Amino acid sequence: MVSAPHEAMHRVFQEYPGLFTSVSEVLGVPFPPVTSARILTTDLTEARPLERRVDTLLRIETEGDGPFLLAVEAQGKKDPDKQTSWAYYLSYLIEKYRLPTTLLIVCQDSATARWAARPVPLGAPQWPVLTLHPLVAGPHNIPAVTDVAEARKDLALATLSAITHAGDPDIGAILKTLSAALRDAPDTIAAPIVELTAQGLGNRPAAQQWRNLVAVDLSFYTSPLSQEIRDEGRAEGRAEALLLVLEARGITLTEEDRARITGCHEPQVLGRWLTRATTAASAEELFREE
After folding, report:
1. pTM assigned to the model
2. Domain around 248
3. Residue 46 φ then ψ, to 5°
4. 187 and 241 share a domain?
5. Which one of 206, 222, 238 terminates a domain?
6. How many domains does the chain have?
7. 21 plus 116 within the same structural domain
8. What pLDDT, on the 0 to 100 scale, is given for residue 49?
9. Last residue of some domain: 169, 204, 222?
10. Is 66 left (phi over 0), alpha (psi -120 to 50) or beta?
């Protein structure tokens, strides 16, 4: 099953194709500035029953050197089988589109990034016919963006910084910088960045820190994450009110009853319980039909 961080590592290039210009500069590989980009189908399946899909595929137009294809792959761990798959992707794309093609691997840990960056000779050891040599972006070479002014200059790169450094000890400073940089950004710009960053953090402890920052610094946004946080806040407030009403009415609750109330995150259910709490004679009556 594809994880949320996996999606964020390559989808950020779908949302911001120009990010590749910043990444190529950071990696020290000169590519001409991007003028436009078009998302292409990621399905590399052949007529025979063999299905292969690249994570993100972009046709990028440049100022002076013409178009090229950018295939972006998110890689969460070492997988020797992927290297031959990547070689297949590149051969297929060059054959199909007849355009220069670049492969960018995005990682969230340095060990995987170093593994992915090694040139891989393909063919007989005496005479390799091809060498796989992808570009690799990860915590080892994407800078930790902790300056608000720098983040504002390139919000996409600041987002990738947060995603690739998701497991780093200094992720807190990166997230605080990103949230501060988004305060003055329009909703249409901030909302996808909020969601991509949340995806990229996955289930790491920093994910909760990002949720807290979104709740405080970006509370006016209408992204799915901010709406989810608001729903949680409403549920928490109703749970506290419900406990106060039951206490005032002298209704005895077991630890299991309390856990059921505080563990409920559905505002509508808590609203029904709160209404019943004004007349219920017991906890059993409060929870009827649930």
Report:
1. 0.69
2. 228-286
3. -90, 175
4. no
5. 222
6. 3
7. yes
8. 57
9. 222
10. left
- Three-state secondary structure readout of 257-279: HHHHHHCCCCHHHHHHHHHHHCC
For the stretch 152-210, pLDDT in tens is 999 999 999 999 999 999 899 999 999 999 988 887 888 889 888 988 998 898 988 88
Q: Record the tokens describing residue 119, joined without a space.
A: 């040139």
243 is a domain residue: yes
Q: What pLDDT sits at residue 43?
A: 83
Residues 80-125 have pLDDT tens digits of 889 989 999 999 999 999 999 999 999 999 999 999 999 999 887 7
Residue 143 lies in a domain: no
Residues 36 and 14 in one domain: yes
Amino acid identity at 188: T
Alpha helices in the chain (DSSP H): 4-15, 19-26, 80-97, 110-117, 148-153, 155-164, 171-182, 187-201, 206-217, 224-248, 255-262, 267-277, 283-286
Record the tokens describing residue 153, joined without a space. Answer: 């200059």
